[in-house]
């Protein structure tokens, strides 16, 4: 049997833990007679399971005859890409052929037999959506890892118009928090600001432990320790399982060096590079206290960082929204990412020795 765990980003692994409640929340909303929203934004850290969550939602609709699902590439012209993908769907193509739409400008050899001309992707999509509506089809559009690019802004502006025309269209987009935040704050995209965001919460620790127990012939306490080492971080769950599969007989302590190296190279170096100097200063202090005592009181952070409570609050809020720290315990902060304190400590030591 091949390794059931996968450490490639953007691909749904063979062995994974579903977020059933979140998936069904989106499915129930989109499926209701009067949906409360037609857009969901899924955000979180790299490796937190955004793509898998989106894929799980789409999978729920795949076999439903009235639903059409389309995934678009945010680096492409999204409107043109949507025209092409809709036209090439077997269960829709015959409807578009009968309607004699003019798709010649999009590299598709159909000609219009009427006197009108469809000159833009947006106007052509209006025609296509009318056909979907006539045949009682609903469309979910999914875009993974969006940024505040012109392609995405143009598409979102058009989508805003489409849903005002009462088409049964739905949009799922995933992205890092800062990218979603920047996109939402575009003046012309206020509907995205009102769209509900789904933050990828940590995976259930019990589900991770049970998964490891099912796959590996190990005692319950070892499976529980492995689950604890992941802190519910989706990539860490895959990574530790992957390493354990490759070294089945090795003691857990001996796997940590490889575990730390993968976390650093695949995720943590990138996260660190995107932090401001002030963010890093706060994180260094939290890491130092974590390595010394484990519990990180806010008061101790203020003292060591020589920072006022009001100033620290702004950094604490931003780091919490990014998913790096947990502030749920009153008066305390902690890292959400596994062994991130050890990473920061080693990073500081290396920088000081350069």
Model description:
With 354 residues, the chain is of the alpha/beta class. It folds into 3 domains: 20-199, P-loop containing nucleotide triphosphate hydrolases (Rossmann fold, 3-Layer(aba) Sandwich), CATH 3.40.50; 205-272; 275-353, Arc Repressor Mutant, subunit A (Orthogonal Bundle), CATH 1.10.10.10. Helix content is 55%, strand content 9%. It has 16 helices and 7 strands. Helix 1 (20-31) packs across helix 2 (50-61) and helix 11 packs antiparallel against helix 12 (252-273). The longest helix has 22 residues, at 252-273. The model is unreliable at 109-118 (pLDDT under 50).
Short descriptors:
5-stranded parallel sheet, globular, 354 residues, alpha/beta, Arc Repressor Mutant, subunit A, Rossmann fold
Q: Which helices and strands appear, and what pairs or packs with what?
A:
Elements: H1 20-31, E1 39-43, H2 50-61, E2 67-72, H3 78-87, H4 90-99, H5 121-134, E3 138-143, H6 150-164, E4 169-175, H7 177-184, H8 190-194, E5 197-199, H9 205-215, H10 220-230, H11 234-246, H12 252-273, H13 277-293, H14 298-305, H15 309-322, E6 325-326, E7 334-335, H16 340-353
Parallel strand pairs: 1-4, 1-5, 2-3, 3-4
Antiparallel strand pairs: 6-7
Helix pairs in contact: 1-2, 3-5, 9-10, 10-11, 11-12, 13-14, 13-16
CATH fold category name of the largest domain: Rossmann fold
What would the principal axes of the Cα set say about the shape?
Answer: globular
Please mark out the parts with pLDDT under 50 across 5 or more consecutive residues, or reply none.
109-118
What number of domains?
Answer: 3
| Helix content range | 55-70%
Overall number of strands: 7
The assigned CATH architecture of the largest domain is: 3-Layer(aba) Sandwich
For the record, the CATH class of the largest domain is Alpha Beta
Straight-line N-to-C gap: 45 Å
Mean pLDDT rating: 90
The CATH superfamily of the largest domain turns out to be P-loop containing nucleotide triphosphate hydrolases
Strand content: 5-15%
Number of DSSP helical runs:
16
Radius of gyration: 24 Å
């Amino acid at each position: 049997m091949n390794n059931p765990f996968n450490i490639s980003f953007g691909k749904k692994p063979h062995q994974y833990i579903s977020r059933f409640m979140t998936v069904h929340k989106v499915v129930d909303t989109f499926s209701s007679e009067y949906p409360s929203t037609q857009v969901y934004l899924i955000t979180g850290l790299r490796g937190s399971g955004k793509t898998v969550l989106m894929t799980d939602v789409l999978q729920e609709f795949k076999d439903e005859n009235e639903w059409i699902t389309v995934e678009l590439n945010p680096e492409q012209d999204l409107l043109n890409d949507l025209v092409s993908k809709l036209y090439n769907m077997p269960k829709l193509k015959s409807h578009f052929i009968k309607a004699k739409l003019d798709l010649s400008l999009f590299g598709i050899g159909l000609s219009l037999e009427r006197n009108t001309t469809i000159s833009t992707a947006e106007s052509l999509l209006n025609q296509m959506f009318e056909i979907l509506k006539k045949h009682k089809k609903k469309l979910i559009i999914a875009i993974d890892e969006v940024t505040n690019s012109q392609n995405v802004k143009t598409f979102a502006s058009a989508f805003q118009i489409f849903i005002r025309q009462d088409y049964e269209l739905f949009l799922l987009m995933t992205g890092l928090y800062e990218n979603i935040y920047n996109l939402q704050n575009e003046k012309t995209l206020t509907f995205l600001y009102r769209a509900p965001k789904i933050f990828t919460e940590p995976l259930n620790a019990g589900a991770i432990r049970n998964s490891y127990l099912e796959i590996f012939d190990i005692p319950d306490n070892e499976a529980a320790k492995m689950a604890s080492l992941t802190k519910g971080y989706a990539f860490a769950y895959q990574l530790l399982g992957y390493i354990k599969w490759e070294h089945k007989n090795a003691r857990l302590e001996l796997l940590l060096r490889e575990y730390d190296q993968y976390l650093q190279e695949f995720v943590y170096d990138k996260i660190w590079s995107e932090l401001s100097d002030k963010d890093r200063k706060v994180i260094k202090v939290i890491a130092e206290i974590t390595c010394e005592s484990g519990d990180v009181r806010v008061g101790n952070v203020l003292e060591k960082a020589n920072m006022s409570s009001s100033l620290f609050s702004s950094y604490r809020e931003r780091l919490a929204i990014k998913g790096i720290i947990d502030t749920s315990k009153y008066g305390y902060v902690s890292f959400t990412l596994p062994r991130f304190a050890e990473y920061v400590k080693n990073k500081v030591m290396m920088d000081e020795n350069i």
